[in-house]
Amino acid sequence: MAIVVTNITRVAPSLVREFAGVGVATVHEAQARKGLLDAVIRPIYRPVHIVGTAVTCEVAPGDNWMIHVAAEQCQPGDILVVTPTSPCTDGYFGDLLATSLRARGVQGLIIDAGVRDIATLTQMQFPVWSRAIHAQGTVKETIANVNTAVICAGALIKPGDLIVADDDGVVVVRRQQVVTVLESVQAREANEENKRKRFENGELGLDVYNMRQRLASKGLTYVDAQDLVNDAKQADSEQ
Amino acid sequence: MAIVVTNITRVAPSLVREFAGVGVATVHEAQARKGLLDAVIRPIYRPVHIVGTAVTCEVAPGDNWMIHVAAEQCQPGDILVVTPTSPCTDGYFGDLLATSLRARGVQGLIIDAGVRDIATLTQMQFPVWSRAIHAQGTVKETIANVNTAVICAGALIKPGDLIVADDDGVVVVRRQQVVTVLESVQAREANEENKRKRFENGELGLDVYNMRQRLASKGLTYVDAQDLVNDAKQADSEQ
Amino acid sequence: MAIVVTNITRVAPSLVREFAGVGVATVHEAQARKGLLDAVIRPIYRPVHIVGTAVTCEVAPGDNWMIHVAAEQCQPGDILVVTPTSPCTDGYFGDLLATSLRARGVQGLIIDAGVRDIATLTQMQFPVWSRAIHAQGTVKETIANVNTAVICAGALIKPGDLIVADDDGVVVVRRQQVVTVLESVQAREANEENKRKRFENGELGLDVYNMRQRLASKGLTYVDAQDLVNDAKQADSEQ
Amino acid sequence: MAIVVTNITRVAPSLVREFAGVGVATVHEAQARKGLLDAVIRPIYRPVHIVGTAVTCEVAPGDNWMIHVAAEQCQPGDILVVTPTSPCTDGYFGDLLATSLRARGVQGLIIDAGVRDIATLTQMQFPVWSRAIHAQGTVKETIANVNTAVICAGALIKPGDLIVADDDGVVVVRRQQVVTVLESVQAREANEENKRKRFENGELGLDVYNMRQRLASKGLTYVDAQDLVNDAKQADSEQ
Amino acid sequence: MAIVVTNITRVAPSLVREFAGVGVATVHEAQARKGLLDAVIRPIYRPVHIVGTAVTCEVAPGDNWMIHVAAEQCQPGDILVVTPTSPCTDGYFGDLLATSLRARGVQGLIIDAGVRDIATLTQMQFPVWSRAIHAQGTVKETIANVNTAVICAGALIKPGDLIVADDDGVVVVRRQQVVTVLESVQAREANEENKRKRFENGELGLDVYNMRQRLASKGLTYVDAQDLVNDAKQADSEQ
Amino acid sequence: MAIVVTNITRVAPSLVREFAGVGVATVHEAQARKGLLDAVIRPIYRPVHIVGTAVTCEVAPGDNWMIHVAAEQCQPGDILVVTPTSPCTDGYFGDLLATSLRARGVQGLIIDAGVRDIATLTQMQFPVWSRAIHAQGTVKETIANVNTAVICAGALIKPGDLIVADDDGVVVVRRQQVVTVLESVQAREANEENKRKRFENGELGLDVYNMRQRLASKGLTYVDAQDLVNDAKQADSEQ
User: Does E239 score more than 80 pLDDT?
Assistant: First the structure.
C-alpha cells in the first residue's frame, strides 16, 4: 500500500548552483509570491542557507521508519523533505540520521514535525528546518510513501523540485519553472541593488517608488499635530 | 479617510538618553506594571536594547504601503511602531526598508506582524521586534493612518511616547509620564543594587524582604519529609 | 493550607554526576520514553546542559512569593522546578532570584511559566527553561506548596528526582529508578557510537538496522519514476 | 494604588436602545472598521445579542476580587468589561456573580479571561463573552482599578462607552461617537436591504457593485479550462 | 497576473448524489486516509452535512474581492472553496454573499479564513466551515486566481473535485478517483453495519477484530492489581 | 513491555452516586483547587454531566489499538480516560467504539487527543471530552499500558479514581480522598444556596463577603469621575 519512487528527475545541478546565496524572500517574490512553507517551520540554528533538490518522505505520526527508506533515495545535493500523514511534533530525527544523510551528501532536512539532538546537529552544522524541537522518540511500525507529491507545511512539494531555505523560512520552486524563476530572480536582484543605494543616500520609498500621487488620489491627508490639538480644545470649550 | 499627522511632539532627547541601559522589566515595574506589549512580540536577534520615541503606523493586512509613508515622518532617535488593522503575520518589512529607516536615524522597529530578510537585518544590527518571521510578501493598495494613537500587541501607543525594548520585550511610557517614571526607575535601580549584593552573599529573599512572619500568618507550615513518610506508613498499616 | 517539606531525600551526588553530558533524548529513550516535559518548555539560551536533583515549588498565577520560600530549601546541585497552580506566563523569575539561587549552588531553573531579565541571565550563564519570556511582574500574596509532588509541563516531578535538561528539553527520572536508567543509558551510548561510525562510512539505516525484509513484508514497493510517467501517459491516451 | 471611579458618564439609554438588533459587523463597518475586540473572545452560548454601556474592571491574574467591587458600580443597562492585568484564563466568573449582576440589571459580561458554571449561565441566559471556559478558581488578594480606561482583548474601552456583542464577537463605540456611528449604521442597513433583494434575485456582486471594469483594469483574465488542457498537452508533446 | 478558469469539468451530479449521507471519516478511510483538511476548519453550526463539487478561489489577505468573481463561476451543486494567499482570519464572508451563493444553488462554503454574520448564516442554514469567526471587514483591492488548484487548510483541492463536509471536518476526493472511492465507501459501510451489531451485543473489539494473539506476540502482559500492591509492599519491606 | 492491570480497586458505586449533579467547579474548589484537567479538553456537546470511576489507557500517537484492550477492562459506571504517549490530535475514537463502550455500561470518554463521528456520538448522547475533533484515522501497531497511572491533560489520574465532567471541563478526585471531598462539597453547596438568595435579593458581594474594610486597608480609593475631569482641565490650563 506504500511505494518508493526511484530514479526521480531532479533540477539539474548547474541550475541549482545558480541559486546559491539567493534568499527565500527573493525567490518567493520572483515566482509571484507562491511556494512558501508555513512560517511555523523554523531553522534550528542561524544564519543558515541551503539550496537543493527535494526527496520527499511521508511518515506516520510518531513513526520515523520511512526516513531510513528515504535516505537510500538521496543523492549529493538533495534536501530531504519529511511530512507526517497527520499532525505530530515528535522528534523524528536526530544526530545519527543526520550523520547518515551527510554521508550521502544531503544538504539538509525540512520536516513538518519535531527534531532532537539539536545541540549536536548545530555543532555538525547540519541544517534543519522543523515545526518543533522535541526529544520525544518514535517507533518503526508503519510504512508510507517516498518520492510522491506531498504537502509539507501547507506547500505542495514534488520530488525533484528546487528547495531554497534560509533564516526567513523555506520556499519550493516547481522543477519545470526553475529557469523562469531564475531569470526573474536575477532581474529582481539587479533592481534591488539600485534601490538599496538610493535608500542609503536617504531617499524615501515615497520617491523611489513614485507613490505620492497615488496616495493622494486614495485620499491620504496630512494634518499638523498642533492643529489637531487646537481643534480638540475648540470642541471641548464649545461643549 | 486616512491621515498622516505631522510635526508630533516627542519626549525630549535628553530625557530619552536617561533611559539608556534601563531594562524593560525595570521600566514596567517603575510605572506600576503598565505598558508592556504582549509577550508574542520578540526580538529577531539578541542581545539588543534600544530606547526612542514612537512614530506610529497602521497597515492593512498584507499591505505595507504605509510604512513608506511613515518613514518620511521619522527623525533620528525615533522607533517605528507598526500595527496591522487586523491580525496578519506577513513579512511587511525587510532589508530595503531597514536601510531607508537607518538612513533617517531610526533606532529600530516594533511590529505586531511579520518581518523578513532577518539574516541581513541581523548582520546590519538593525533592531526589530515582531510577532513572526515570514518571507510572505505584501502589496501596496490600501491607505491607513500614521501618527495616530494605536494599539500594538495589546498596548496603547501614542505618537511621541517613549519606547524601551530589549531581550525581554517592549514597554511604552506615556510621554507625559516620562519624568515621573524616570525617578521611579532610578530609585528602583539603586535599591536593586543593594539587594543583589545581599543575594550574592547568600542571604535569602525570606530575610532580605522580611517575609517569614507574613508567610506564617498566611498559614505556611514546615513539615519534615521523614515525618510524612512515617505518617503514610502508619495510615497504611491501620487500613 | 500550604506546606514546605524539608529534609527531602535526593538522588546521591555520585549518581547525579554519572549523567554529566548525557542528553535528554538518550535518557528519555533509556527509560522507555517516559518523563519528558512538554516541548513548549525551552531554554533561554543554547547550548546548555545541566543535571541535578529537583526541589519543587508551586506558585499562584501572577505570584512568585513561594520561589523565595523554595530558595531556602535548595542545596548545591539542586534544580528548582516551578509550576503555577493555573496556567500563567508572567515573568516570575529574574536576575535577583538567579543571583540568590546561584549563591546557594543551584544548577538552574525549570519553570512552566515566564521569566525575565534574560539578557542578564544569559550573561550570568544561569540556565533556565521556561514556557515564555515576559517582563510582566508578579505579586507576593498567596502561599502554595514547596517540595510536594507537582505536575510541571505535563510531567510528574517529585522532590529529589533527577532532572536532565539540555537544548532538546527537559526529562525527569524518578529517584528510585536512577540506577536502572543509568545502566540503560550506558548500554545505549555504547551502541550508538558503533552505529554512528557505520553511518559515517555511508552504510544505510536499512542495513544497519536490518529493515529491508520487514519493510517488504509490510508491502513496501519500489517503482521507477519513468514507469509511472509512462503509465500516466498510457492512461491519458486511453481516455 | 488602585482607584474606583464612581459616577461615570454613560451613553444615554435612549441612544443605546437605537442599537437593539444591530449586528457587531455592521457597527464595525459603520465606524470605519475600528473597535473590534480580538476574535478569541467568544460567546458561551448562541444566538445572543446585547447592547449596553461599559463598566470597566481590571483584575490581577488568578484573582477575581475586583469584580465584586465593580458590581457595585453597575446600573441597569450596563455591560461589565473585565480584563486581567496580565494574561490569564482562570474561571473568574460563575453563577453566583451572574446572579448578583442580573439583580443589578447588568446586560452581560465581556471578559478577556476564563469563566465557569457555563451550564448554569446558559440556563439563566446570562450573556458572557470570554477567552476561555475553565473551572479553575481564583483568589481575592490583590486590588486593581475600576472604571478607568482598559485594553480588553486588544481594544481600548473607556467607562461609559457603548458595547455591542453578538455571535460574531464584540465591538466598542466611543461614547462621543455614538450619534455619528448610529447615523452610519442606519444608512448602511437601508443600503444592505436593497442589496440583499438583488442577490436573492440572482444578481451577482460583480454587477451589484459594478466591479467588472475595475477587475479587468487590474489584469484579471478569463481562460477556458479546455484551452488550458490543450496548451498543456501541446507543451508536453513539444518537450 | 491572475486568471479565472471557466467551464471546468466537475464530478457528475449522479456520482455526487451517491455520497449523500456518507461521513467525512468514512470517505477519508476509503481513500487510504488522504485528503482531510486541517482540523482547525470547523463548521459554524452542527449538525451539518454537504456534498458537492469544488469551485476554488484565492483571496488576498484582508481582501474578499475575488469571492464575487468566483460566485459567477458557481453552478447548482457546487461548494465554494476559498483560501487566502497568506494566513488571515478576517471575516471574508457574511450574509449578503451567502444570499448570493444560495441564489446560485451553491451547497456551502469552505474557507481557510474567517466569516461573520454567523447568526444569520445559521438561521439561513447556509453551511460554512471556517478557521475563525471574526467580524473584521475586508477590502476589494487585489485580484487573485479562481478555479486553479489551491491548497486549502493543508489539502490540495482542484476545481471540480468532490468535497464532503460534516461535523467532523472536510475531505476532498480527486475527481478522477471518485468512482474508486465510492466503491470502497460502500464496502466499508456494509462492513461497519455488521460490526456495529456485534458491538451492540457486547462483543469486544479484541474478538471482533481477532486481536488477542497479535497483542500477546507484541508482549502485552496482564497483571492483577492486587499482585502489584503486594509486590510493592514486599519491595518496601526489603529496603 | 506494556501491561494491562486487571481487577483494579474503584471508588464504591454508592459514593460515586453522591456526586450526581455536582459541578466540576464545585469539586475543584472542594479539594483545594486541585485535579482539574487542562481547559483545552472540551465536551463535544452540551449540556452534559457525568460521574464515574477511571479506567486509564495509554495510546501511541496515531494508534488506537489499546482502546480495544481497555474496553475489556471497563465495567458499568466506568469512565475511560485515554492519553497519548506523545501529543496527537488524531481521531482515535468514533461511533463503533462508543457502541462497544456503551454496551459495557461505560459513562463516557475523556481523551487528550481527537475524536470523530461526533454527529453520531451526539445523537447517541455518548459523552466525550476531547482536545480536538478530527476525522484523521489511526492504526493498530503499537502496544501501551492500561490501568497504570497516567497524566491526562496535565492531571495525574490513577485507575479507580473518581472523575467528574461537565460543561466546564473535567476534574479527578483521588480514590482515597473521595469521602473527604464529598463532605466539603456538601458543606459548600449548602453555603452557596444561601449566598445565591442574598445575591438574588440585590445584596453585593462586598457585603455578603464583608470585603469593604480589607479593600480599604489594601489602599482602594473611590474617586468621582467629575473630579477627575476637573483635575485634568486644571492640569491642562496650568501647563
Answer: no
Nearest to E111, CA basis, from E168, E167, E159, E150: E150
* C105 phi-psi bin (left φ>0, alpha ψ -120 to 50, beta other): left
Single pTM value for the model: 0.96
- Grid coordinates given for C77: 546541585
Average pLDDT over residues F138-162: 97
User: In a 3-state reduction of DSSP, which class is residue A92?
Assistant: coil
State the CB neighbour count (10 A cutoff) for residue B193. Answer: 9
Mean pLDDT of E182-202: 94
Residues F57, F112: Cα–Cα separation, whole Å: 11
**Burial letters for B50-59: b for 16+ Cβ neighbours within 10 Å, e otherwise?**
bbbbbbbbbb
Q: What is the mean pLDDT of residues A108-121?
A: 98
Mean pLDDT, chain E, as a whole number? 96
Instruction: For residue E75, give the C-alpha cell.
Output: 453552478
Judged by CB atoms closer than 8 Å, whether chains meet at F36 and D136 is answered as yes
Query: How far apart (Å, rounded) are the C-alpha atoms in residues C216 and E38?
Result: 31
Cβ atoms of residues F186 and F35 within 8 Å: no
Strand-strand pairing, B2-6 and B108-115: unpaired
Cα A9 to chain centroid distance, Å, stands at 22
From the list E88, E139, E141, the residue facing B88 with the nearest CB is E88
Residue linked to cell 491620504: A220
Q: Are D57 and D80 in contact (CB under 8 A)?
A: yes
Do the beta carbons of residue C26 and residue C189 sit within 8 Å? yes
Residue A188 has pLDDT above 60, yes or no: yes
For residue A239, pLDDT over 60 is answered with no
Instruction: Extract the C-alpha cell encoding E119.
Output: 447568526
**What distance in Å separates the CA atoms of residue D175 and residue D157, rounded to the nearest whole number?**
10
Give the mean model confidence (pLDDT) for residues C114-136. 98
F184 close to F26: Cβ distance less than 8 angstroms: no
pLDDT at site B16: 98
CA atoms within 13 A on the CB side of D7: 8
- C-alpha grid cell, residue C227: 514507469
SS3 B3: strand
D2 and F206 in contact by Cβ < 8 A?
A: no
Global ipTM = 0.95
Distance from the Cα of residue F203 to its chain's centroid: 31
Considering only CB atoms, E155 lies closest to which of A32, A86, A151, namely A151
Instruction: Please report residues of B whose CB lies closer than 8 A to that of D154.
Output: 151, 154
Closest residue in F to C36 (Cα–Cα): F86
**Cβ contact D39–E69 (<8 Å):** no
Residue of D164 and C190 predicted with greater confidence: D164
Average pLDDT over residues E140-145: 97
Average pLDDT over residues C112-122: 98
Cβ pair E95, E71 in contact under 8 A:
no
Provide the pLDDT confidence category of residue B238 given band limits of 50, 70 and 90.
low
Among residues A61, C182, E90, which one has the least CA distance to residue D39?
A: E90
Query: Is residue D237 pLDDT above 80, yes or no?
Result: no
3-state DSSP call for residue C40? coil
* Cell output for A178: 526553475
Tracing cell 523578513 back to the chain, one arrives at B116
- Residue D236, pLDDT score: 66
CB atoms A141 and F142 under 8 Å = yes
What sign results for the dihedral spanned by CA atoms A201, A206, A212, A216? negative
Residues from chain D that touch C61, judged by Cβ atoms under 8 A, are 61-62, 88, 90
**Per the structure block, which three cell numbers stand in for F233?**
482641565
pLDDT of residue A236: 66
Angle CA F21–F172–C55, to nearest 5: 150
Contacts of E184 (CB under 8 A, 6+ apart): E30, E31
Helix (H, G, I), strand (E, B) or coil at A215: helix
pLDDT of residue E1: 78
